[in-house]
Write a structure and sequence with these properties.
single chain; alpha/beta; Rossmann fold; GMP Synthetase, Chain A, domain 3; 5-stranded parallel sheet; 32% helix; binds xanthosine-5'-monophosphate
């Protein structure tokens, strides 16, 4: 396990990802974590992230200095290197005239003694390296016992190392703009920490199943299936751990896409042989949404109703102490970062309604330490059908936030039909997977058209398609014109209440992916 100390860098999560990509388990920990905590967790090395502060600011985040003398390998990146330098008696200064933002070239020194040279081993550059810098402060004096490993034009210390396995890098090896950054990180993990690339899908499954078994014992668990990949993989892992002590509940809210309810039931009950209850709550949801136009009010009512239905179903099952959730590691990082003084990123979560404070269940969260791509790999390994593994995300409030304005059964049916055509054509063009998310929106606008010799006055459907890695930022997908033409043509011909189709060409930000 590699511990990543979070000093509030926008790249902290990226460091955790890069380490996992090298097949080493990583976890982001608060910068207050002590050496003792690390030892207790079997930590093999520490990475100190960058951060927005200056080390000499009052209250600037630090870390347990005992770590630096413990023989535990430490890689300090940017601010992380400055923290290490300061703690060990080096000097850090505001580098007037030496600020560096963006691409830079560093020159490796030729005094590379072993083992400090390990960090740059095997790189395709005997003396210079292209890197990405983003800093105002610099280390101007090395702490005792450190060797200067690299310099840059405006930076006396671009990299430094100590025989105890301490390495400081002023540049960011985790970003894609440092072309050989992955190799530098691997050098730290394998060459300096002595990690083995063992974080494979099979190991993930084995470790998670063991954790679930230990938590749940012989008691019962319920798991709400949403139709998305996360809850499905959570259910598969729990089923592998405790078999039919698991019951899945799928709430048919009436806000699902075409054929979705049947597909979930068929896959889980018939294909995976996992006990499944389908709760038909369509009428209840429509009733709660009647006449509601405000997006936030829709979300709130759906969230509350969802939990009510869910608890009702759970109560019928008898004594079920555990509720499973498909919480992912990025959600955990984002919600805990509220508590760490150093972190600055805050994202609003969209989980349906949240959980009531008097929740009677204990939570089981099998995906708590996994990233989305790891979840997909686990799903594929556990036999989840491929088209489910790669399904686009679907919001908890469902089609209710894609029918803009008041939600009625009729408007839901119109949207469902238009959406199904869009997705069918996207798949036929082999563009479903490369697109991060795609769907239709039923706008509240009506427009005039002409069909045959008749004037029409009907609904406008908007198509939304985005490319994105993390869904926090997104660009509109440049779908081919002929595909868009085919989709528009089919929608106006096949969906009676629609006479016009438009394509949303806004990025996020400033728009969001969903319209409500
Ligand atoms: P936005 O619209 O904020 O959405 O750009 C980002 C991603 O989150 C999904 N989303 C939701 N997911 N419950 C969910 O489970 C919600 O209330 C919700 N709202 C948005 C959205 O589909 C996109 O993938």
């Amino acid at each position: 396990m590699i511990a990543i100390f979070d000093f509030g860098s926008q790249y902290t999560r990226l460091i955790a990802r890069r380490v996992r990509e090298a097949r080493v388990y990583s976890e982001i920990v608060p910068n207050t974590t002590t050496l003792e905590d690390l030892r207790a967790r079997g930590c093999q090395g520490v990475i100190l992230s960058g951060g927005p502060n200056s080390v000499y600011d009052a209250g600037a985040p630090q870390c347990d200095a005992a770590i630096f003398t413990s023989n535990l390998p430490v890689l300090g990146i940017c601010y992380g290197m400055q923290v290490m330098a300061q703690a060990l008696g080096g000097k850090v200064q505001l580098a007037t005239g030496r600020r560096e933002y963006g691409p830079a070239t560093i020159t490796l020194t030729d005094e590379h003694p072993a083992p400090q040279d390990a960090i740059f081993a095997g790189l395709d550059a005997s003396t210079s390296l292209h890197v990405w810098m983003s800093h105002g402060d610099s280390v101007t004096e090395l702490p005792e016992g450190f060797t200067l490993l690299a310099t840059s034009d405006s930076n006396p210390v671009a990299a430094m190392g100590h025989a105890r396995g301490l390495v400081g890098l002023q540049f960011h090896p985790e970003v894609a703009h440092t072309p050989q950054g992955a190799q530098v990180l691997e050098n730290f993990l394998f060459g300096i920490c002595g990690c083995a690339p063992e974080w494979t899908t099979e190991n993930v499954i084995e470790a998670t199943v063991a954790r679930i078994k230990a938590q749940v014992g012989d008691r019962r668990v319920i798991c709400g299936l949403s139709g998305g990949v996360d809850s499905a993989v959570a259910a598969l892992l729990i089923h592998r751990a405790v078999g039919d002590q698991l019951t899945c509940v799928f709430v048919d809210t009436g806000l699902l896409r075409q054929g979705e309810g049947e597909q979930v039931a068929a896959t889980f009950r018939d294909h995976m042989h996992i006990p499944l209850i389908v709760a038909d709550a369509r009428a209840r949801f429509l009733e709660r949404l009647a006449g509601v136009e405000d997006p936030e009010e829709k979300r709130k009512r759906i969230g509350a109703e969802f939990i009510r239905v869910f608890e009702g179903e759970a109560a019928k099952l008898g004594d079920v102490p555990f509720l499973a959730q498909g919480t992912l590691y990025p959600d955990v990082i984002e919600s805990t970062s509220h508590d760490t003084a150093a972190a600055q990123t805050i994202k609003t979560h969209h989980n349906v309604g949240g959980l009531p404070s008097d929740l009677k269940f204990q939570l089981v969260e099998p995906l708590r330490y996994l990233f989305k791509d790891e979840v997909r790999a686990v799903g594929a390994e556990l036999g989840l059908p491929e088209d489910w593994v790669w399904r686009h995300p679907f919001p908890g409030p469902g089609l209710a936030i894609r029918v803009i304005g008041a939600v009625t059964e009729e408007r839901l049916a119109t949207l469902r039909a238009a959406d199904a055509i869009f997705i069918e054509e996207l798949r036929a063009a082999d563009l479903y997977r490369p697109t991060g998310q795609a769907f239709a929106v039923l706008t509240p606008v009506r427009s005039v058209g002409v069909m045959g010799d008749y004037r029409t006055y009907a609904n406008v459907v908007a198509l939304r398609a985005v490319t994105t890695g993390d869904f926090m930022t997104a660009d509109w997908a440049r779908l081919p014109y002929d595909l868009l033409a085919r989709v528009a043509n089919r929608i106006v011909n096949e969906v009676p209440a629609v006479n016009r189709v438009v394509f949303d060409i806004t990025s996020k930000p400033p728009a969001t992916i969903e319209w409500e």
